[in-house]
Amino acid sequence: MRSVRIGGKLRRLRQDQKLNQTQMAAELGISPSYLNLLESNQRPVTVNILLRLAERFKVDLTAMGGEDDGRLVTDLMEALSDPVFDAQDIKATDVRDIVATLPSMARAMLALYQSYRRGTALAPVEGDSDSDAAPIGLPSEEVTDFLQAKLNYFPGLEEAAESLWHDNSLALLTLQQDLIKVLAERFAVDLEIAPASAMPGHLRMFNPLTRKLTLSEMLPGPSRTFQLAYQIALLGHRREIDHAVSSGKFTTPQADALAGSAMANYFAAAVMMPYDRFLASAKSTRYDINVLQHRFGVSFEQICHRLTTLRRPGHEGIPFHLIRVDIAGNISKRFSASGIHIARFGAACPRWNVYDAFATPGMVRVQVSRMPDNSSYFCVARTIDTAARISPRGGLPSRIGQLAVGLGCAVHFAKELVYADGLNLDDPQIVTPIGVSCRVCPRGDCADRAMPSLSQRLEIDENKRGLSTYAMQI
User: Fold this and answer.
1) 3-state class percentages of the chain: helix first, strand second, coil last, to nearest 5
2) C-alpha 214: how far from its chain's center?
3) Same domain assignment for residues 357 and 254
4) Are residues 162 and 211 in the same domain?
5) Which of 40, 225, 284, 326 is geometrically suited to a Cys-Cys bond with 176, CB 3.0 to 4.6 A?
């Protein structure tokens, strides 16, 4: 079992309780000197002490664990990999020490860096008439952090979706027509499927005055059903959406609006894939995405998204992570319940199989991967087509963008997935060493390294050529 050091959290808890070391040691049944060693991270905390902390101080043991610290270390390392810090010679051990001893300070540093990035990206040009305007934050980052903090599970929206099914006698085989009927009878909304030429640049439009919902003919069937459920969310379940969003404490109106849209999306997915039925099907098919697509009439990406939301206490699915990227490496969606760390400030490691998916469009790629901390994961990835990929008319040929979605879990869950059949998961030869991103990865023997690592000093020997320009001397 991995040792857990929680010195900074333990000291903060003691200070919040207004106890000195002698008083808290007495509460925990240990000596003041041993408590001092724990607070200074010179000793790992034991299971018995964790249980006493939970009993005496009603603390959440998951919050005291090391997983959040690991994610904070990775995020802060990634922030400090920015070239602006190159002259500071910051080592990975320095970051781990800060997180272990002063976690609140580490979070403050990360927040400060995020504010710096937002301000730099949106800094006004000299002479701009709006130069006094305050820079706006990145709503997408706020919402992503919100979903991560909530583990992408919102029970109020699940209950609302279940009520919609019960109150309107919905059926899976006729779901699209049932939702059209709900919109017409409960909300007086008419539906029109319009030619793409009639709504350039849009896939869905709702006019609250005429009560008309217009969907583009370019939307495939699953996307049309999704948009119908999305509109029902906005018209009939605003209270549940606002309640979920209010817990996010967002800093800008744009983040509030984006979070509201994300909650409506969540509701739509819960309508199309009801929790209990979907979880039972996922387990019975051993998480076969292709079978689930056909059973529920949804897309590959919609299945992957829904699988990350199965976190109902006592009735949970496999804790998955999800990442969506474009061919340039930009990450447009990320969420992790598996424990894997996903890059926040740039592209992820090029060895992740989500990038290999672009070489074989439409084919599911499978990978067993291992991070530098020896945590291992089982991942599947595939390219996806989106409704927005509409070919331009006439003119010169134009490249149409493509996305890829990766879904993964800790490797000990792999045997529950049909995609692991026939694989010897104990065979080290099938394991791909990966990292979060080049700048925070300590691997010195990586031929795919695109940038030097923050973990070690870069040394260039003109008489030697390593696996890459930035391969470290080992």
Assistant:
1) 45, 10, 40
2) 31
3) no
4) yes
5) 225
- Average pLDDT value for the chain: 85
Arithmetic mean of pLDDT, 11-36? 88
What pLDDT is recorded for position 111?
78
Tens digit of pLDDT for each residue in 205-238? Answer: 999 999 999 999 999 999 999 999 999 999 999 9
Local structure of 462: helix, strand or coil: coil
| Residue 468 located in a structural domain | yes
Compute the distance between CA of residue 23 and CA of residue 342 in angstroms, rounded to an integer.
Answer: 41
Model pLDDT, residue 84: 74
pLDDT in the model for residue 129: 45
The total number of structural domains in the chain stands at 4
Both 189 and 267 in a single domain? Answer: yes
Read off the CATH number of the domain in which 365 is found.
3.30.450
Q: How many CB atoms lie within 10 A of CB 116?
A: 14
- On the question of pLDDT at 407 being above 90, the answer is yes
Question: Cβ distance 354 to 330 under 8 Å?
Answer: no
Rounded CA-CA distance 179/236 in Å is 12
- Overall average pLDDT of the 46-71 stretch: 73
Q: Which residues constitute the domain of residue 41? A: 7-64
Task: Return all residues near 252 (Cβ < 8 A) that are at least 6 apart.
Answer: 136, 137, 139, 142
Assess whether 471 and 424 both reside in one domain: no
CB 444 within 8 A of CB 474: yes
Is 286 within the bounds of a domain? no
Distance CA 316, CA 307 (A): 10
Whether the full predicted model's pTM is greater than 0.90, yes or no, is no
CATH of the domain at 181: 1.10.10
238 part of a folded domain: yes
Distance CA 460, CA 469 (A): 8
pLDDT of residue 136: 45
CA torsion angle 9 12 14 16 (round to 10): -130
Cα–Cα dist 104/110, whole Å: 10
Q: Within a domain: residue 104?
A: no
More confident residue, 397 or 349: 349
Residues 203, 162 within the same domain? yes
Residues 417 and 456 occupy one common structural domain:
no
Q: Does 425 lie in the same domain as 364?
A: yes
